[in-house]
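Reopening this ticket.

The earlier resolution said the output was attached, but the attachment link was broken on my side. Pasting everything inline this time so it's all in one place.
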Amino acid sequence: MATLRQLEYLVAIVDEGSFTRAAESLNVTQPGLSHQFQALEREVGGPLLERLPRGVRLTPAGRSMLPHARAALAEAGRATVSARRAAGVSTGELHLATLYSVSSGVLPTVLGLWRRKHPGVRIRLFEHRRSDEMALAMAAGQADVAVGPLPEDWEGTARHIGTEEFLVVTRSDDPVALSDRAPDVRLADLAEREWVHFTPDSGLSDILERACTAAGFRPRIAVRTEQAPSAIGYAAAGLGPTLVPANTIPPHFAGAFLRPDPPLRRQLTGYTRTSPDPVTSSFLETLGEHAPLMPAHVARRLRATDRAARRPSPERE
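Inline output:
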């Protein structure tokens, strides 16, 4: 009787188009794969593949056997998942859609904690530049769950995660970082500056543009980048201020960061198209409990700057 391993080899050879690529995809040696495949052909009583100068071609017997081989492998996979779930073991794959800024600021902590609880679950991440782009991808079934702003009129399940605060980042000796207003800053006070901006297809570009427009000006551009971590580095180097989620600022950051006045915030949600399955529900629970919306190292520095600003200077005593 053919074994599941032999059926797996047949499917891989057909899908990859050669014995060599099939062996590489399965992480086995080519002689070992060939030996098992020859044993399968002996079992069925004839050749299943015709070896060509470039690739392989199914024989009539191979064409007859291939759909049954695929079905047997799929059923074996379902049986394994079912047995592991019954034994309390998490398995499967989590397809997760998010924004680039959320991916760098929120998800590393959350996924690290969640993966330790569910080491058997694979994670496939889909990163998007804009929340509207991500919503369209979710509606088309790209992922099991999305993390970002909730789309208007979303008909699926949603769980509110919390409020994400944006901060202005500058070099450490920037005049606004040393002013009496720190750690707060009016964006209008930066109207004459050149900004570290984001590429036009980035959602962060829209956020910065709207904030500056509300403050009464259009930002002049020193440089554009796609990623919040890059913008933070350029701002700290003195190219100009930038505006990023607080959770994207790394520990031991050498630059300065300030709170916009009025505050600028973004609501984050975990949302799905259908009722969450156990894997998705577990992820949403971890996300809600541990999402680092305001990292401790950022909050500590803001509090320290607040205290320093309230302390009377020697000249005033």
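Reporter confirms the inline version is readable. The first strand starts at residue 49 and ends at 52. Residues 209 and 218 are 7 Å apart (CA to CA).
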